[in-house]
Write the structure tokens for this entry.
Amino acid sequence: MDTPLFEYTLGLADDALISAQRMGWWISRAPELEEDVALANIGLDQLGQARSLLTYAAELEGEGRTEDGLAYLRDEREFRNVKLVERPMTDFGVAMARLLAFATYQLHLYRALSTSSDTTLAGIAAKAVKEVAYHVDHASHWVLRLGDGTDESHARMQAALDAEWPYLAELFTPIDPSLADRVADPAHLEDAVVAHVRRVVTEATLTMPEVSRALGGGRQGVHTEHLGYLLAEMQHLHRSHPGATW
Amino acid sequence: MTTKDWPLWEVFVRARRGLSHVHSGSLHAPDAEMALRNARDLYTRRGEGVSIWVVKASDIAASTPDERDPFFDPAADKIYRHPTFYEVPEGVEHL
């Protein structure tokens, strides 16, 4: 098995999967019904990306596991997502700050990946680029409105950015050297992603946070205490009723 | 939480090039740009459209049910307004 490629694919898949689960949390909780639907749509796009990536990861592993096996039957320490996406949604500003950061990263990553020599990853990425471009657009519009809105919305949007920003750095963890020239290296994307986010943040009359980086480790399976609870909810049905369908 | 409700927007979707925009429904949004985005999510998620218009519901002037009779009834008995009222003389070409 090509372990570095498997781990890389799993990292992309788990980022999308865990983010999708957090997006789903907003259904019935968003400020308006219209926003419920918007966030659910975004979550479903991410889930679609996760499914394709998990299927490919299972194929790379070659041990007969399926996308469901990887999504529902791994424990916390086996997940490879970054901490950015697993933390709870504390308010709508946090959701938009996180989506802006994460979707912008995904946009640049998928764009780079769509021309990589791994044709499966390139295909998945090419399809996902349009989806995440819309996610960036949605988050940008909200950050602009909340940042350049009332005193209250400005303060909460800034607080949300400050809370999410320490977790951004982990997205740019360099990849295994054996993967160089075969996939997109997130370490090369940091400047472009930060510049992209900065344009939105500045236009929204907000300030780029100057905060120290949070500890990484998600790609090695070291997570915050929140992931276990998320997985319990996400995996419960499949583990109680293996293979359940409807 | 919002203390004030977002305004209502009416959504018109064009299914294909060459067709007209058709009223699809309504939604709430804080402004026109977000209304377009909400319309995209609510009314075109299964590929229903290639173009969307949104109009603030309060900007639409509409006839009221009270005016129905004076507005529309007079048209009912004026059969000469329909092309079928006229007989086409025999031998007329290019009609």
The two ends of chain B are 64 Å apart (CA to CA).
